[in-house]
Amino acid sequence: MLNKSVNAISDTYVLAKRNVKRNFRVPQLLIFSSAQPIIFLLLFNFVFGGAVAGTSEEKYIFFLLPGIMAQIALFGSIQTGVGLAEDLNKGVIDRLRSLPITRSAVLAGRTFADSARNVFVIALITIVGIILGFRIEQGYAKFFAAMLLVLLFAYSFSWVSANIGMWLKDSETVQVAGFLWVFPLVFASSVFVPVATMPSWLQGFAQNQPVTQVVNAVRYLAVGGVPNGQHYIYATILWSLGIIAVFAPLAIRMYRKIQ
Amino acid sequence: MANQYSIHAESVIKHFGTTKALDGVSLKADYGKVTGLLGPNGSGKTTLIKIMSSLLEPTQGKVLIDGIDVHRHPNQVRNIIGLAGQYAAVDDYLTGRETLEMVGRLYHMPKKEIKKRSNELLQQLGLEDAADRQTKTYSGGMRRRLDLGASLVSTPKVLFLDEPTTGLDPRTRLQLWSIIQDLVTKGVSILLTTQYLEEADALADKMYVLNHGKVIAKGTSGSLKSSLGVDIIEVIVKQNQLILAQKSLTQKLNKTITIDELTRRLQIKTKNGSDDILLVAQILHDIKIKPEELSLHRPSLDDVFMSLTAERNHNA
Questions:
Q1: Which residues on chain A are in Cβ contact (under 8 Å) with B89?
Q2: Which range marks the domain in which residue A36 is found?
Q3: Number of structural domains found in chain A
Q4: What are A1-43's pLDDT values in tens digits?
Q5: What's the gap in Å between the CA of B157 and the closest CA on chain A?
Q6: Do B132 and B97 meet the contact criterion of CB atoms below 8 Å apart?
Q7: Band (B1; pLDDT cuts 50, 70, 90)
Q8: A8 and which of A52, A102, A201, B259 could share a cystine (Cβ 3.0–4.6 Å)?
Q9: Which residues of chain A have a CB within 8 Å of the CB of B82?
Q10: How many CB atoms lie within 10 A of CB A144?
Q11: Strand, coil or helix: what is B90?
């Protein structure tokens, strides 16, 4: 039993390391996965910033940066499925499945490695945000807690993406399909604009879907001024754990049944 | 009695939806030998290998590897098998050494042993110089060798090779053959699928021919060939000796001899080519005819394969 757990941890570590090495040795992926949110941050800040913030003193960047972090979490999770589909097609998954390793290790290794990439991208976007005028207003401890929430949230969506990757099995299709489910979640949320500005039929969805929870929780912890902010922290944690509880077992089952 | 076979598959059936990929395949592979699995594309070779190596569950039937039931105890089986697939499944961005060491860690081998074994394999496979380069700089042959190396890290008892030389140039293919032969002398039991009949001929002791998910023939290369019937002895002589040669050979061998005047060729069909070719040589010597060419053809494995699969396709 103990031996089994030690092996499970070691297998996951070895496979996570493999994927992290890939991220750093094929820097294109890291560069573009960082460039994308930076461009979103710049575009939205300068193009929509005036319209959204209007004449108010408050700068849009304080509203936007927490949103972009949630966007990073979702866009980044697409890569989990893409990477798995690639491994499937190259026969790497067959090789790994012929080894005496813990069933969950290949998927856990992948999702953890993607979290490591997220740490890098989120640190980078924070720096860019600060250059654009963002300030950590509620202290470093709360900001750090906010980042942990984003990572947990991203981790849970990696498991959703893992299912899609193994289901579609083709990395390009996974990439394109990713935008299909990620775009509505990102845009129909409080990522870029307040939910109150949306048509009423959309507000119900936008206010209650998971992305809005994490964005509001990060705004509450990093910037402040969010009424009932505690609620969003709990909601983020519950959504994330719930998503993991559903999608991780599904993904592992799918992995075992790969044909 | 201990288990007699390294691999023992019993009536394996696999359906994908409504297609029957495998329709009751039984196979017995001896210890320390190469067993060949032949068949055209889509005949079920890869499906069978995947089932035997624990990657796929059969719809029905049972597979024992070294006496262990693959589907009851997959991880026990995974500890004693190696698998090298159709494509070289190595990561572009890892070095050769890292690839082997990663696999060693996934077998939970002690660190020291992993180092030692990786070095050993890199040397055996002629990858020492490239060991610390990322595999994206490797040639196709080097990648195959590394892939094979990865399947050997834990010194498997039973090794599955799914078309290990497909797409390689002849020289690299020979290199891989000699590595495979070397493994056999070390006692590894190998199951090899291939589309190249000469490869099966060179390496496999026993072969199974698969078509449409069924075993349509099995046996040694020799027995498969003789199952087709006959050997052919061919003699080429000078134009003016043809009739004399035919007459003498017909008398002494008591067989029908066919002549092709244009190519000055005499053909003798026989069930016992290796004895009869000596007789033919002796007879020709006695009547003082020096043949320009004297040869014995066994039907090639290609002939066997074509005739077997053609029959089947015709029946279907």
A1: 90-92, 94-95
A2: 2-256
A3: 1
A4: 678 889 999 999 999 999 999 888 888 888 888 899 999 999 9
A5: 14
A6: yes
A7: very low
A8: A102
A9: 98
A10: 13
A11: coil
Residues 2-61 of A with CB under 8 A from B: 7, 10-11, 14-15, 18, 21-22, 25-26
Q: Which residues pair with B295 in a beta bridge?
A: B234
Please tell me the least confidently modeled range out of A165-174, B127-136, B233-242.
B233-242
Which two three-digit tokens encode residue A60?
Answer: 């849009």
Closest CA to B295 of B236, B227, B226: B236
Domain B5-226, what fold?
Rossmann fold (3.40.50)
Residue A27: the pLDDT is 84
Q: What is the pLDDT of residues B42-92, one digit of tens each?
A: 889 999 999 999 999 999 999 999 999 999 999 999 999 999 977 778 898
* pTM for the structure as a whole: 0.81
Choose the closest CB to B106 out of A25, A91, A99.
A99
CB atoms B107 and A100 under 8 Å: yes
> Which residue of A lies nearest to B15 if distances are taken between CA atoms?
A259
- Distance CA(A133)–CA(B258), nearest Å, equals 98
What is the rounded CA–CA span in Å between residue A46 and residue B173? 61
Which CATH class name applies to B230-297?
alpha beta
Q: Where do runs of H (alpha helix) occur along A26-59?
A: 27-43, 49-53
What is the mean predicted confidence (pLDDT) over A242-248? Answer: 97
A199 part of contact set with chain B, CB < 8 Å: no
Q: How far is it, in rounded angstroms, from Cα B219 to Cα A16? A: 46
Q: What share of chain B is helix, strand, coil (3-state, %, to 5)?
A: 40, 30, 30
Crossing angle of helices A229-256 and A140-168, rounded to 10°: 30
Contact (Cβ atoms closer than 8 angstroms) between residue B107 and residue A105: no
State chain A's mean pLDDT as an integer. Answer: 92
Q: Which residues of chain B have a CB within 8 Å of the CB of A97?
A: 54-55
What residues of A are in contact with residue B114 (Cβ under 8 Å)? Answer: none
Q: Strand, helix or coil at B294?
A: strand
What pLDDT band is residue B2 in, cutting at 50, 70 and 90? low
Percent of residues, chain B, with pLDDT higher than 90: 55
Position B310 pLDDT exceeds 90: no
